[in-house]
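Whether sequence alone determines local backbone shape is best considered at the level of individual chains. Part of our work consisted of pairing the sequence of a single chain with a tokenised description of its backbone. This step matters because it turns folding into a mapping between discrete strings. For completeness, the protein is quoted in full, as a sequence line and a line of structure tokens:

_____
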Amino acid sequence: MSIADNIKNLNAETGRVGVKLVAVSKTKPVEDIEEAYAAGQRIFGENQVQELVEKHEKLPKDIQWHLIGHLQTNKVKYIAPFISLIESVDSLKLLQEINKQALKNARVINCLLQVYIADEDTKFGLGHDELIELLRSDEFRAMENVRIIGLMGIATNTENEKQIKDEFYELKTLFDGIKVSFFRKDDYFKEVSMGMSSDYKLAIEQGSTMVRLGSTIFGQRVIKHWKNN
């Protein structure tokens, strides 16, 4: 199946239930992104700031770029002029820097707060208490150039479907509580970004509004092995 066929099939599947498709294009060449773009895909997700900036310069300007990887505060300035959504905000300090750089660019930058839901030490994210503390803080209330439009989470990398479902359920339940407590009057707070190639169907069942798919669209990464002649 071609990239275009994959996009078409996934859009039919996710569009039917109103879920946005983020094509995870990290490590993929510009040609692959152009093929997905020609098939109608407009939202692309990248992990690395440098790679994101380079691709933004080479590709059509109506692409909506999402930063989905861990973001260091000193890199925010490079993406602030054009980023559509930062999905991986995992600290007040990072949010303050995004607000500062958005102000410099006369923009309001949309963000998701990344919540730690996995049973793994390698994942980033805010704990439930930290999330509520951030939203209650005077520093957050003073920010005028960031807009929190929802939550993001990454489930544990496991074959245990029940565990994955429970983690997604936990994130959606938390989202519903945060919506009522902090964003009741804000229509823009509506996104729950959860689900990747291995578990997106479970995520959609549990209420995801945005799935981040890489290999399902672009195929597995090809690793070249060179032999000495």
